[in-house]
Amino acid sequence: MTNDPPEVLVFHEALRGPMIAKMLTPLTQSMHGASAFVRTSLVRPEDLRDLEGLRHSPMVFQEQVAKAYELRVAVVAAPGGGRCFAGAIDATRSTAGQIDWRGASPSQVAWRPGALPDEVATRLLALTRALDLVYGAVDLIVTPDGRHVFLEINPAGEWGMLERDLGLPIASALADALLQ
């Protein structure tokens, strides 16, 4: 995360491969109209030639990771326990969705049940607790060779689509955790 153009250039050079960029916070206009939304974007060579505006709007820069599919994991870290609810989404058939699944049209993507290795679930619960959170929405990429790559944890990330589309009992788990 930076707003320093030379730092971005050094990072890009060190990657020796594709880099993506993300806004730190979502853009919103008002409650009366459509929200402006900036998706995760591939950083192109021409983007690196004009980074001066970055000084006014820090961004997150990451290595682009090859993906078989992505996971959204709703982590509920209840005292003495906890659960991870995983949904998988594959947007690799969509050119627009290959960088950010939200760029794919709804006909090109759908949520399906996701699975986590026990070790990954244990680590996600530990991270959520270490951050003193009851809930965190975790985004992971599963690479073509099956590795799970952590992208981020959001303490207010969306989970309603996982409950709606997959029947995962996230609201109930959150209520139980908050009542403990």
How would you sum up this structure, described in words?
The structure is a single chain. The protein is globular. It is α+β, with helices and mostly antiparallel strands. Strands 6-5-4-7-8 form a 5-stranded antiparallel beta sheet, with helices on both faces. Strands 2-1-3 form a 3-stranded antiparallel beta sheet. It folds into 2 domains: 5-63, no CATH class; 69-179, D-amino Acid Aminotransferase, Chain A, domain 1. Helices cover 25% and strands 24% of the residues. The chain has helices at 5-15, 45-48, 118-130, 160-166, 170-179, and strands at residues 19-23, 41-42, 59-63, 69-76, 83-89, 112-113, 135-142, 148-154.
What's the pLDDT, averaged over the residues?
Answer: 88
**Quaternary structure state of the chains depicted:** single chain
- Structural class given helices, strands, pairing? alpha+beta
> Count of DSSP E strands?
8
Shape: globular
CATH class of the largest domain: Alpha Beta
User: Ends: how far apart?
Assistant: 36 Å
CATH architecture of the largest domain: 2-Layer Sandwich
Question: Which spans of ≥5 residues are poorly predicted at pLDDT below 50?
Answer: none
Total helical segments:
5
What strand line-up does the widest sheet have? Answer: 6-5-4-7-8
Summary tags:
180 residues, alpha+beta, D-amino Acid Aminotransferase, Chain A, domain 1, three-stranded antiparallel β-sheet, 8 strands, 25% helix
